[in-house]
Design goal:
Layout (H helix, E strand, L loop, with lengths): L1 H16 L1 H23 L8 E3 L2 E3 L2 H10 L5 E8 L5 E6 L4 H7 L23 E4 L11 E2 L13 E2 L5 H4 L7 H14 L16 H7 L3 E2 L1
Parallel strand pairs: 3-5, 7-8
Antiparallel strand pairs: 1-2, 3-4, 5-6
Length: 218
């Protein structure tokens, strides 16, 4: 106890007779504490820049997501011509829409007529898009290979990969229940590769298939 008391007395005496020097020490001590507080208060994770397939991640958390969750981007090639500012072949990311492709080539010309074109349609690889001028009559579809998106091709056949329930029910021997099974099957197993694959659907045998095989396509 006495030892501690004498130490305190000595400290106070030192401060009393060395005020200027003591103040300097106190300021330095405060600055050191402040610096430690700033360093410890920052997030220990540093920003890391990682680029994978053109995707840049700028935080440690994003780097983890990049390594585990970002997949390779798939590309398609689309040919656009007609009343557009820069016709040609475009390399696009998968699932892009018609209007996005047109924006990427500088947009439409003043005399373009898109009244018959579904600008929201998803593009597929090898699509040929032709934008007509006002008053121009087309002998073929403005967007080739997209007719199947409506469920019915240009020959009037029903596309079993894209047709909705109502369209499927137009087939001989197919009612609401079977139509739903056709749709459920392709959602669970992917697109039909050949029209005969539809016989894998419960309720569709050789006899039923024979009734509508000439009226379907993929």
């Amino acid at each position: 106890m006495l030892g501690g008391y004498f130490v305190k007395v000595k400290i106070f005496e030192y401060i009393k007779y060395h005020k200027e020097y003591s103040v300097k020490i106190l300021i330095i001590f405060c600055l050191v504490l402040f610096g430690l507080f700033i360093c410890l208060g920052n997030d220990t994770s540093k920003e890391i820049v990682v680029e994978k397939n053109g995707v840049t991640a700028v935080t440690a958390e994003a780097v983890i997501l990049t390594g585990a969750g970002i997949e390779d981007v798939n590309y398609i090639y689309v040919d656009i011509s007609g009343a557009v500012n820069s016709p040609g072949v475009l390399k696009l990311e998968e699932n892009m829409r018609v209007y996005q492709a047109i924006e990427m080539i500088g947009g439409l010309k003043a005399d373009a007529d898109v009244s018959g074109i579904n600008m929201a349609a998803k593009l597929e690889d090898e699509n040929k898009i032709y934008i007509p001028k006002v008053g121009e009559k087309l002998e073929t579809a403005a967007i080739n290979n997209l007719q199947s998106k409506t469920g019915i091709d240009h020959n009037g056949k029903i596309n079993i990969n894209t047709a909705n329930s109502q369209q499927l029910q137009e087939l001989s021997g197919v009612g609401p229940s079977t139509a739903d099974k056709i749709i459920q099957y392709r959602e669970e197993h992917g697109s039909y590769q050949i029209i005969e694959d539809i016989k894998n659907v419960s309720g569709i045998g050789d006899k039923t298939f024979a009734k509508f095989k000439d009226n379907i396509c993929i």
